[in-house]
Write a structure and sequence with these properties.
Blueprint (H helix, E strand, L loop, with lengths): L5 H14 L9 E2 L5 E13 L9 E6 L5 E6 L9 E6 L15 E8 L6 E8 L4 E8 L12 E3 L8
Length: about 160
């Protein structure tokens, strides 16, 4: 076994981190107003009410302002989606002291799975160059008396089942 000093190990880790690809691409787009947009990332984790992961749950992300559906993903065995890249105002805009601009993108996330009640989170913020993790716990239909009434949650509302 080769012996390394702490400094050698740190230097090796630095070199590896420089080669690593970011989770969110650096490609910028423009919105309708001609302003540059960055990209943020979102990972959605879908669980049943007891926090057990739900495989093959459907996750749909829509633009909160327009309602336009952006992407639909399916969760893996751990209940997670891949990183979903979404447009967001540039990080440099968040450094503006004026506070006049919205510094994040707002998205609605709907999760659904067979035998579970659909659940929508409204106006979830997504920031440029940041990968956020959003957890959604779905309720069994039988636990709600067999009802299939979709549930919606937003920042302004208390969480009620």
């Amino acid at each position: 076994m080769q012996s390394r000093t702490v400094e050698e190990y740190i230097n090796e880790m630095r070199k590896m981190s420089l080669k690593a690809k970011p989770l969110v691409s650096e490609i910028n787009e423009s919105n309708l107003n001609g302003e540059a947009l960055g990209k943020g990332g979102l990972i959605v984790v879908v669980n049943e009410a007891q926090s057990r992961p739900l495989k093959n749950a459907t996750v749909t992300v829509s633009n909160s302002a327009t309602g336009e559906k952006i992407i639909t993903e399916t969760t893996d065995i751990s209940g997670r989606t891949n990183v979903i890249e979404l447009p967001a105002p540039l990080k440099s805009e968040t450094l503006s002291p004026s506070g006049e601009k919205i510094v994040y993108g707002l998205y609605d996330i709907t999760a659904s799975a067979e035998n579970f009640i659909d659940f929508t989170l409204k106006e979830v913020p997504v920031f440029d160059s940041v990968v956020s993790i959003q957890t959604i716990n779905l309720l069994w239909k039988w636990a709600a008396g067999g009802e299939n009434v979709p549930k919606t949650q937003s920042e302004e509302q208390p969480y009620n089942l």
